[in-house]
Every structure is written in C-alpha cells, then in structure tokens.
Amino acid sequence: MHDLVIIGGGGAGLTAALTAKKTNWDANITLITNEELSYSPCALPFVIGGEIEGLDKISKDIVKICKESEINCVIDTVISIDADRKLVKTERGEEFSYTSLIIATGGVPFKPPIPGVELEGVYTLQRIEDARKIMHALEKAKNAVVIGGGAIGLEMAAIFIKRGLKVTLIEQFEHVLARPLDPDFSVLVENKLKERGVEFILNKSVKEIRGEGHVESVKVEDRTIPADIVLLGVGLRPNSELAKKAGILTVDGGIKTDGLLQTNIDDVYAAGDCVDSRSMVTGKLMLSQLGTTAIRHGMITGMNAVGGYATFEGVLNSMILKIFDLEIGRTGLTEGDARENEIDIVVGKVKGTTRSSYFPGAKEIDIKLIFNALNRKIIGAQVIAEEGVAGKIDLLAFAIAHNAEIMDLMKLKYCYTPPVAPSHNVIVEAADNALKKLRRMMEVRKRRF
User: Would you say 192 and 386 are in contact if contact means Cβ atoms under 8 Å apart?
Assistant: First the structure.
C-alpha cells in the first residue's frame, strides 16, 4: 500500500510530491509520470527564441529529483483509476494501491477542427518535444502563421519575428488577449507587435491549412497566406478524461474540487491545469491554467493528502507576459467580466512614467483599476509598460484579495527616487481618477431628483 500516489509530474504533481514529503517524511509516496524531465512549459518560447541557451538549462531529471527526497518515481502512463478499490493501473500493467490520490494530469493543447491541422509543420507548444521540432523547423522557415492571439500565440509571434520570419497572426475575436484584457489595453499590445512587423488578421477564422504532406499555406476567407510553420496557440483543454472515467465530477471539462482541492470522491485530490478553481471576486468556477496556480494547487494537495491541512482561497488569474520590450500584466476581473457578472463598476485609468519623466530611460506606463461602484472595492487591474509591471500587479492582486477600497489605494505609502520611481505613483493617480468619476456619477444621480 502506498500512502500517496500522484498522477502527473508537471508543476502541480512534482510540487505536491515534494510538499507531501516535507509535511510527512514517513509517508510512502509514488509519483507516476510519462515524462523523464521536469521543466516549465512557460520557458519553452524563450529557449526557441535564444534568450535561454538550450533546453538543458530549463530541465532536470525528475527521477533524480524524486530520489533525493526519497520519493518513488515511476516513468509510465496511468490508464485507469479504480476509486472503489483505491487502485491505479498503468500502461505497462503495474498496479498501485493508495490511501490518498492526487490527479495532476495537466492540460492538452487544443487542436481546432480545421482541415489540414494534422499536416507536418503545424505545431502546438506544451512539451519539450514540441520545442525541439519547432527549433528544427526554424532552420529553413521563412513564413510563419500563428493561429490564436493568446499568451503563447503572442510570445511565439514575437519570437518568429526575432528569428527573421514574416509573421501573420490570425485571431477569431476582434482583439488579441480578448479574455485577460479589455479592448483598450489589447490595442496597446497590437500596436507594439505591428510596429515590429507582425501582420494581424482579426475577427476572422481559419478555413483550411493547405499543403502536400507539409504545410504550405493557410486560407482565411478570401486570402491565402504562405506558411512554412503554423503555430496553434488556441489554449489548453483540461486533461480530465481519466478522472471522468473514475466517476469524478467535472464542470466544463475541469475537475471539480472543494476548498481542500478534494474531489467528490474521498481521499482523491486534483491539482493544476486539469482543475476548475473559483474566482475570488465572483465565487464562480473557472479555469486558471497558470504556473502559479499549479504550484499553489500542488502545495495544498500535497499537504492535505498526507494528513496536513491547507485551504485554497481561489484565484485572481494574475498574469504577466513580456513581448518584445513590452510587459503586460493583469489581475482580477476585466470590464467585460464585470458586465457579464452584472457588477456596476467605476474605472480609474491614467498614463504615467516608470521613473521621473526627466530621468534617462523613463518609460510610459498605462494602468487601469476597476472598482465595484457600490462598495468601492477594487476588483481588477491591467498594467502595460516596458518595466516595473510585475510588482504593481502583485500589489494590486494583494489589494483585491484583501478587499481594498478606492481610498485605501489613494493613501498608498510609496517610495520615490528619480532613477527608479516617480514622485507621483500611477496606482494612487488611477484610484484618484476613479474617485472623481464616482463623484461625478453621484452628482448626475442627484440632479435627477
């Protein structure tokens, strides 16, 4: 009998194993994974782009990591879970019984049902093998088409430009980053990419990927675009089939869990990209397929599965991207999210500088703060600049999590020195802008009576 069996060796699974061992050193822990290397998929674009020198810089031997912590590591694929008998079975025919189980099977890149999507030269980017194939293809490629304007699509579009390719990005929505950003901030990103040579085809869908054996072009309505490489960046789908077959509940494909990240079956937990989380603002279930969420899931499930106690409070989907020299950050709800959830909002929005405007190297910074107009609490933020975005997003996520109001942010105690930070803080200024708008809204209401 194994005290704990973990399925999946990605960020969530390996973190769960290491946390469980720290929580209860005497626990007998087995990690079953179909990959021999531990690495962050988020780092793969930067290896392809040459900013990180080689895949060996981002990967480690997962068996060695486990051995150092006295965790049993099995390189195999789990094919079934018998929740009644508390047993998992692998492709090689091995069976592992458990007291507790953690499912951390991750996500699978979505391949849209486009004719020609299986042609050679059409890639997704989630595993090291994908990166190797793309790096090899880049040796001869001249034209790249990116399908999807999410994080991976934009990162890879920038990298293809840096590698000297002609790049066309196709997005079915009106703007890139349509879910994490509002249109006014999406446009800032689009403009930067256009300046660097990326052509956009927005609000249109790919009809066909063409080629004889290998991709040669992509058809979008009445246009045919030459392509030696096609990168699919249309998101991940939760890899939850194994859980479903075992009778574990899912919602919109993601495994449903409670505040302890336990499923509807006792002693079975789930973590990472295969799991539905809850929004800290709306309380609704949502996917949060971010590395930070996977790590937090892993820590909580690893602790709970071996007798510890930890709770998962939910997500704000805080994220940051760097595309060329532009940093793009967001947390909480967008204006669009607020409308969908019927939340009345007031928005504070300003443009400032990252350092004193007169100091060499000062960059423009755009910031938007979104407040609930009824209780004045901050519920979302977006920040775009060429430096200093991560710290502001972390601070604003902390503010949302702790129910900060407009006046709390206006009273922010901040630092100042010309080479690093200006005398006027953009968070304070954006909060002040929101308060002025709120007061005008109140004045308009008074005049009606």
Answer: no
User: What's the CA gap between 221 and 371, in Å, rounded?
Assistant: 40
Q: Is 42 a catalytic residue?
A: yes
Domains of the chain: 2-38+50-107+236-304 (3.50.50.60), 111-232 (3.50.50.60), 319-443 (3.30.390.30)
Model confidence over 145-180: pLDDT tens digits?
999 999 999 999 999 999 999 999 999 999 999 999
For residue 16, give the nearest of 227, 272, 229, 217 by alpha carbon: 272
Tokens of 51: 């900013």
Cα(392)–Cα(405) distance, integer angstroms: 16
Spell out the SS3 assignment of 39-66: CCHHHHHHHHCCCCCCHHHCCEEHHHHH
In 3D, which of 290, 238, 249, 284 has the Cα closest to residue 105? 238
Phi–psi pair at 40, nearest 5 degrees = -100, 120
pLDDT band at 1 (very low <50, low <70, confident <90, very high): low
Number of Cβ atoms within 10 Å of the Cβ of 411? 11
What is the rounded distance in angstroms from the CA atom of residue 351 to the CA atom of residue 348? 11
Quote the CA–CA distance of 191 and 179 in Å, as a whole number: 18
Cα–Cα distance, 189 to 187 (Å, whole number) = 5
Contacts of 355 (CB under 8 A, 6+ apart): 361, 362, 363, 418, 419, 420, 421, 422
Q: Do the beta carbons of residue 123 and residue 135 sit within 8 Å? A: no
Catalytic residue among 42, 66, 73, 415: 42
Is 296 strand, coil or helix?
A: helix
Helix segments in 288-332, DSSP class H: 291-304
d(CA 305, CA 20): 7
Gyration radius of the chain over CA positions: 24
Which tokens sit at 41? 């998929």
Predicted pLDDT of residue 447: 74
pLDDT, tens only, 185-229: 999 999 999 999 999 999 999 999 999 999 999 999 889 999 999
Burial letters 47-65, b for 16+ CB under 10 A, else e: bbbeeeeebeebbeebbeb
Percent of the chain with pLDDT over 70: 99
| CA dist., res. 82 & res. 85, Å (int) | 6
What pLDDT digit, counting tens, does each position of 108-144 carry?
999 999 999 999 999 999 999 999 999 999 999 999 9
Q: What angle do CA 402, 397, 249 make, to 5 degrees?
A: 90
